[in-house]
Amino acid sequence: MNTLVNYIRERLDDNKLRKYLQQVVENVDTLVPHNDSEFAELQKFGLYPAEECVPFVTEKGTPAYVLDNMAMIPIDEPKEKWMHYGDFRFRQLEILYVMARMESAEAHEWLRNNLFMGSMKRDKCYGRVDARKKDEYKREFRGHERADWKQIQTEWMKYCLCLKYRDYAAFRKQLHSTSKFPVEDGTGKNYPSRLFWGTELVEIDGRNYYFGCNVLGKLLAQLRANNGHLDYTLPKDMNLFGKPILDI
What we know:
The structure is a single chain. This protein is α+β, with helices and mostly antiparallel strands. It has one domain: YbiA-like (Tetracycline Repressor, domain 2). The protein has 9 helices and 13 strands. Strands 1-11-10 form a 3-stranded antiparallel β-sheet. A two-stranded parallel ribbon has the order 2-9. A hairpin with a 2-residue loop joins strand 10 and strand 11 (207-212). Helix 6 packs across helix 9 (215-225). The radius of gyration is 18 Å and the shape is globular.
């Protein structure tokens, strides 16, 4: 077995890392590759040479920031240019992604109505997205979480990314500005999903790699290759605001 696959297997023997990943997926062992050809599979860990990658982080003003799910459409952009799901307008894709985690229309309306700090006037937001609301939403409506969320989360992410590609011009421009492999860089972060959706920078035998499943980065690469299209399959009972999911 080669050095890179051995590195991944040894890292995934770490109980702390496994406990983090168990909050995101049902079976951590399914994430382990048998050989380096499996690095490309959507939900397998891999090691990606740093010089072949375009990393992005959740920090405004950093390179490739708009690729991140937490990236904000500038508040001075007209609301008509924000992303939209039906009549729901929003500046950050993560909001739409996390909204569907709950089955309750009441929960969806709560998040819609509690997104912004500051006031609304004449249908324009003068505040900013309150990033704490995502975690508050999860706590407030914990009993309404979909039982199958871990199974469908990547399919819903595909839907969300197609919508972002449709609505967010700066995102499309950034995505097509390079042929390098997108990686979400969670180096030094400590949230449970960082090595599922993203990666961290590591050194192996004097060479830098990004280590992680990098599910978001892989989906972005597919989205770029297919000019904004990703095939997805969502459950028939999935809904937002009490209605079936809209077609994009």
